[in-house]
Each structure stands twice: as C-alpha cells, then as structure tokens.
Specification:
Blueprint lengths: L1 H13 L12 H11 L4 H9 L31 H14 L8 H15 L25 H7 L19 E4 L12 E3 L4 E6 L2 E6 L5 E6 L7 E6 L5 E6 L3 E6 L4 E7 L5 E7 L2 E6 L3 E6 L6 E6 L5 E6 L5 E6 L4 E5 L14 E3 L6 E6 L6 E6 L5 E6 L4 E7 L4 E7 L4 E6 L6 E5 L5 E5 L6 E6 L6 E5 L3 E5 L24 E3 L2
Parallel strand pairs: 1-29
Antiparallel strand pairs: 1-28, 2-3, 3-4, 4-5, 6-7, 7-8, 8-9, 10-11, 11-12, 12-13, 14-15, 15-16, 16-17, 18-19, 19-20, 20-21, 22-23, 23-24, 24-25, 26-27, 27-28
C-alpha cells in the first residue's frame, strides 16, 4: 500500500495542471497573438493558423515595395512663435470681415487694443520677420558693388551724344569775292576778328560784337587781294596782293606799317612764324621776310616750279610746309636768326599727289604730323610723318580738296571741297570715319579757318557767302542764353560783310 502511495505522489508532481507563471510564452500563444493583431478576416485567420506550421517559401519582405517614411522630409517649415501666430490669425480673420462691419470707431478701438496687448500697431505687423538687430559692418569694410555702381563716372568714360547742326550758325554775304582756287582769302585772328578779302578790299568782322570794319582798299581797281594772314598775337595782318607786294597792317590803328616788294608775281599764300613772314608767289618762289629789319628779304626757297598756293608753319615753328600747283608737298627747316641765304634744302619733298596741293594743315597735338589735300585730279587726303618721311594714311574723298584744318576739341580733321560736292566734311582722326557733312554752299568751297576757341569753323565759297559752322563746342548743352537761337534755314542770320 505504501508503494502505491509513493507512485501517486510522483504522478501528481509531474502533472502540469498548474500554470507556470515565470515560463516564456508558448509558441502557439505567440502565433495566436500575432494572428489577432493582423487585419485578416476570421476565415483567413483560420487558414493562417492551419498553415502556420509550414515553412514560408519566400524570404519575408523580399519583393515588396517599401513606402518611405514621411518623417524627415525636405519641406522646410519656418518657425513661428505663438505671438506671430496670434497676429496672423487676427489678420486673416480681419480680411474676411465685411466692409460694412468696419466702422471708424471699431477700427480705432482695435488699434488701441492692439497697441495695448501687443505693444505695436497690428496694421504694421508682419507675419514673418527677422528678429534681432542687423550686424554692423566691420570698420574699414567697403562694398565693392556699391563702389562700382554708385561712384561718379570719369569724363573719359562718358559717351557724349554730340549734336552737329546741319545748318550754319551764321551766314555772311561776301560780294565780289574772287572765285580763284589758288588764293587764300580768309583768316581768323586770336582776337576774334575774321578777315576776308573781297576783290580789292579787306574787311574785318568782329565776331564778338558783329561790327564790320573796312581795313584797306587797293589804289588801282585792276589790282586785287590774293592772300591774308594774322600774326599769332592777332594785332597785325599781312596782305598779299596781285602787284607782287606784301603789306603789313596795324589793325588796332587801321594803319599800314610797310609795303614789302620782293616777288615777281602775285603773292597767293602767307604764313607767320614769330617775326618771320613767309610768302609764296605764282613764280614758285618762297620768300622769308624779317619784319624787324629794313632789308626784310632774308631767304628765298626754290623747290616749286609752279605757283605756291599752300603755305603754313608748324605750331612749334620748326618746319614750314608748302604746296604748289606742281603737285609737290615740301617741308622746310626753320630760318636761323640773322641768317641771309638764297638757297635752302628741303627736309622732305613728296610727289604722291596727282593734283595741285593747296590744302595743308599741321596737327596741333602731334607736331610731326602734316595733312595735305589734292585738287580735282587727285582728291586724296594724305597724312605724313615728317620725321620718318612716310605716308601714314590716305583717303580718297571723291572731290576736289581746297582746304584742311584740324579741330583739337574732338581731335578731328575738317576738309573743304570743290567739284563735285561743294561741301565741308568732318572726319574723325586718325580713323577717317565720317562724322558729319556740312552742306549749304552752292559753289565750290575755297577756304577754311578755325575760330580762336576752336569751336567754330568758317568756310568761304564761290557763291559769295561765308558760313560759320559751330560744330566743335565742348559742352553744347550749357550755352549762354544770348548765344541760343533757332537753327533753321529761316532763322539763319544773314549779314552783309560790306
């Protein structure tokens, strides 16, 4: 009996009727809980429980598209504190209000309430704003962009829109003007007096006041004036005549100082170099006159075989340029003080022109540059380097060239033309791009001269008119009121030189 009792005790111990509280969850319990959490229907849940013992044929998760998590996206949401959100809500609610509900009293009360609650007017509030004070730039810092765009531009970088009138500033009638290509009948003094030769008389026009003065008249009616030239100071005028003489006149006192005879033909060109007056005649000779001496004729230059119609000294007084009807351009050295000679050698002599060379001009800003222009058979402007003797450039103008003058204000070259254009042309130097054409003369232009301030060029033509072209003003927008007038054909001022 004792043996049976012991076996009963052993069986009772081995029985698992009581739950084990600390034991891990059984496998069937884990599967049951996972099935309960899934969203399967009861039918599918039963199927799943039936197939739970089978090993899956595919690796879990393989081949399935994984939806990316919405956490950590690339959209930036700015930070707004509660105070800003309240203001934004108020503004949005205010926009939705009807216009009738807004009365002056209500708006004032809202403004007062906003100032009291928020510390500022709600109308001036912004939904988003940067807080904190802006940082000051360190000492010595300079904004490059501000420097680049705010500084005043230099005069060289300013491109001026220059206006050149197509009508002359003034027209002077010049009756009885000799229409002779080889004569030089116009010159403008440094004292602003314009001298013009009308057949046998010389008239002066005061450009400052508009007065006209008859300076001299030839004794014999058959004689005529051939050339004019002012001294550098503008107080004396040299007059070359058809009776082979050179007269010297004191303009201020309107008195002839002396008459110098040395040529054997008419004196068609004149040019001053201090106290030395050079004259060229139809004989082809060039004479130097020292006006301080009783025996004025000091040197004779022989190189031209025909009339010397062009004659001009360089601005520095180092060279004398001469042009003749023999198509030659010659450059002569300066006359030595006190020297008397009947022969002199040329520094340069060029024969490239195919027509008479009357037009000669020295460049004011390049002392060694000479411009020359040929007649009807040539029609070319040529630029010479006296030092090297080379022709720098050449331009075919398609028209007879009677005169040349440099305009230093804009570094341009002005040319006067006869057949077939009968006009004045302004060229950019040294590119020779055409700046403007000044038309108006009805006959060939015979001569040009520049005003002392280099703003106006005067042209005289065979139509017996002198036209003043104010084409070189440095600042045309700032003219004085008295100098302003309408520039039109009907408004051009006509005045007789007599």
């Amino acid at each position: 009996m004792a043996q049976f009792g012991f076996e009963n005790d052993i069986h009772s111990i081995l029985k698992l009727d009581m739950p084990i509280t600390n034991a891990p969850m059984a496998r069937w319990q884990r599967k049951a809980s996972s099935s309960a959490m899934s969203s399967l229907s009861p039918m599918k849940a039963s199927n799943a429980s039936q197939n739970s013992s089978k090993t899956p044929s595919k690796t879990p998760g393989k081949g399935k598209k994984v939806t990316p998590s919405k956490m950590g996206g690339d959209r930036y949401i700015p930070y707004r504190n509660s105070k800003q959100m309240d203001i934004a809500s108020f503004l949005l609610a205010k926009e939705n209000e009807s216009g009738d509900a807004k009365t002056p009293g209500a708006s004032e009360s809202q403004k007062a309430l906003s100032v009291q609650l928020n510390g500022y007017n709600i109308e001036d509030a912004k939904i988003l704003h940067l807080g904190g004070k802006p940082l000051n730039a360190p000492e010595g810092y300079q904004n490059n962009l501000k420097v680049l765009y705010s500084q005043a531009t230099t005069p060289a970088s300013v491109k001026k829109n220059r206006f050149i009138s197509s009508t002359p500033d003034r027209i002077l009638d010049a009756p009885d003007l000799r229409n002779d290509f080889y004569l030089n009948l116009l010159d403008w003094s440094s004292r602003n007096f314009l001298a013009v030769a009308l057949h046998d008389s010389v008239y002066l026009w005061d450009a400052s006041r508009g007065d006209i003065i008859l300076l001299m008249k030839m004794a014999h009616e058959e004689d005529y004036i051939c050339s004019l030239s002012w001294t550098k100071e503008g107080n004396y005028l040299a007059v070359g005549t058809s009776d082979c003489k050179v007269q010297l006149w004191d303009v201020e006192n309107q008195k002839r100082l002396r008459s110098m005879a040395s040529h054997t033909a008419r004196v068609s060109s004149l040019s001053w170099n201090d106290h030395v007056l050079s004259s060229g005649s139809r004989s082809g000779h060039i004479h130097h006159h020292d006006v301080r001496m009783a025996d004025h004729h000091i040197t004779t230059l022989n190189a031209h075989s025909q009339e010397v119609c062009g004659l001009t000294w360089s601005p520095d007084g180092k060279y004398l340029a001469s042009g003749g009807n023999d198509n030659l351009v010659c450059v002569w050295p300066r006359v030595q003080d006190g020297s008397i000679s009947n022969d002199s050698q040329t520094v340069r002599c060029w024969s490239e022109h195919q027509g008479a060379v009357k037009a000669l001009a020295w460049c004011p800003w390049q002392a060694n540059i000479l411009a020359s222009g040929g007649g009807t058979s040539d029609r070319h402007i040529r630029i010479w380097n006296v030092n090297s003797g080379s022709c720098i450039s050449s331009l075919d103008t398609q028209s007879q060239i009677s005169s040349l003058v440099f305009a230093p204000n804009y570094k341009e070259l002005v040319s006067a033309h006869g057949y077939a254009h009968n006009n004045v042309v302004i060229w950019k130097y040294p590119s020779f791009s055409k700046v403007a054409e000044l038309n108006g003369h009805e006959d060939r232009v015979l001569s040009l001269t520049m005003s002392p301030d280099c703003t106006t060029v005067a042209s005289v033509a065979g139509d017996e008119t002198i036209r003043l072209w104010k084409s070189f003003e440095l600042d045309p927008l700032k003219k004085k009121a008295k100098d302003k007038f309408i520039k039109s054909t009907s408004g051009v001022i006509h005045q007789s030189i007599r």
